[in-house]
Amino acid sequence: MFQIGRNIVAELRRIPDYRVVGRVTAVLxxxxxxxxxxxxxxxxxxxxVKRRDGKAVIxxxxxxxxxxxxLMPFGILDGIGIGCEVELGDTQPQVYxxxxxxxRVVNAFGEPVDxxxxxxxxxxxxxxxxxxxxxxxxQRVAGKIDLGIRAMNTFLTCCRGQRMGIFAGSGVGKSxxxxxxxxxxxxDVSVVGLIGERxxxxxxxxxxxxxxEGLRRSVVVVATSDEPPLMRRQAAYMTMALSEYFxxxxxxxxxxxxxxxxxxxxxxxxxxxxxxxxxxKGYTPTVFAELPRxxxxxxxxxxxxxxxxxxxxxxxxxxxxxxxxxDAVRGILDGHVVLDRAIAEQGRYPAxxxxxxxxxxxxxxxxxxxxxxxxxxxxxxxTYEDMAELIRLGAYRKGTDPKVDEAIxxxxxxxxxxxxxxxxxxxxxxxxxxxxxxxxxxxxxPEEQTPANGQPAAQTEQAxxxxxxxxxxxxxxxxxxxxxxxxxxxxxxxxxxxGPKVHSRSKRENGKDLNEAKRALRQDGNDAPGGASx
Length: 534
Ligand SMILES: Nc1ncnc2c1ncn2[C@@H]1O[C@H](COP(=O)(O)OP(=O)(O)OP(=O)(O)O)[C@@H](O)[C@H]1O
Ligand SMILES: [Mg+2]
Fold this sequence. Notes:
By secondary structure, this protein is of the alpha/beta class. The chain has 3 domains: about 1-90, Thrombin, subunit H (Beta Barrel); about 95-360, 3-Layer(aba) Sandwich (Rossmann fold), CATH 3.40.50.12240; about 375-435, Substrate Binding Domain Of Dnak, Chain:A, Domain 2 (Up-down Bundle), CATH 1.20.1270. It has 17 helices and 19 strands. The strands form 4 sheets. Strands 8, 12, 13, 14, 15, 16, 17, 18 and 19 form a 9-stranded mixed beta sheet that branches. A 6-stranded antiparallel beta barrel has the order 1-2-5-4-3-6. A hairpin with a 6-residue loop joins strand 16 and strand 17 (about 305-315).
């Protein structure tokens, strides 16, 4: 009650005693120049520019030139001309989120856009452009978060308060992966920012991907690609402000943004309009200053608060993972998930390239057995990847290297594990058990062996001990892992596509070791298929 009273007093203080009015002196592109009130304005302030028809367009101060203030609109500039009246608005835009916003869709101003009626406001203001909390006041990133995606949960485990980027070229499955995680996560609350995406996608995301169940514990902030850059940029800030509200009331928030690149593009449009010189690929220095200010707002909260786990998609321009925005974002975040077009083209979704993706909280958040399962799978994938070209061309002869034989055997099994339909969900512990089972690190667990205490059989530690318990002669699963396993018999061998048969080459290479085969292949270079028909 006391808090509400204090808020009312604070609000009353914010009501100005007088009206300050300026005039439009020029309009150029997206910019409105105003005179008469420059002394009363600073960058980030809001103004209302009155159109000729009497309606107002909300604008934000984005700079100053020749002692005039430069404004950009949150709407369209039609109907604004020289001499139009400009009234000063909020100096620090704020939003008053509330628990009842869960299940709702809002725009960059926090106004409802879902046709479900007005939103009730909370009693604590949250600045839309807040500063990230200081590093020493934050708790540490800890405790795994279940995202419901096998590949993520096991190979790229994400912890509460961690910030991860999902990097991919266009159409490789970023939004789909994000929507899967929103639907399947076990986190308390999701705040989803759809920034600069297509209008069609926003609706599909809310109705199909999120569904009623997902929406009930989410707030969605939408600014589609047709909206002005200020709206798109502010939608990203709004997403963070709403996440901060839920964090402060002790919730573990999953904050997702699709995409950070559109935020950067919006900032680029704004900066270029004001005349800021571009630095890299047209992106201005302000873009690179704003990115950490935005992304750092996600993370663990202070004592007694919840956390904001951030998942941010990054559109990788031209599939070049070293383009400036990808590079900058990768440096700020605590992990990156790389989606690969080549994998997507094979129809394996989510198209996560495990070997190129990293979660920086791993392996610290896993127990030893989980780490061993994952590193064993990674090692098999790496061995296969190293030899993939030779295997595909049929230039690798089975039996040459037991490690490669093993990788060939397990590769399709791991690939199958990584594949996940949109509607499918795998819980955190189930993922490790399933992966261990596929890698023959676990014996199949008969149903009657389910522990009598009712604990799920999926408890990795318990399950991993099952083989040892069942057969005392056998070493425990963990002890077995590092040992090289014998290649499986041909009948149980991999069902991989070895590509076209290369009989002549196979004969010629007969007796040579693997390195010679590799060298020969390199010499052939692009002529390899031709060589095959020799
Ligand atoms: N888990 C999945 N299962 C089946 N298909 C999928 C899956 N994930 C993605 N896809 C396919 O990939 C296509 C593109 O996915 P999506 O729209 O998520 O890509 P995007 O990277 O967000 O694209 P854009 O860069 O255009 O935003 C989808 O239309 C769908 O056909
Ligand atoms: Mg998308």
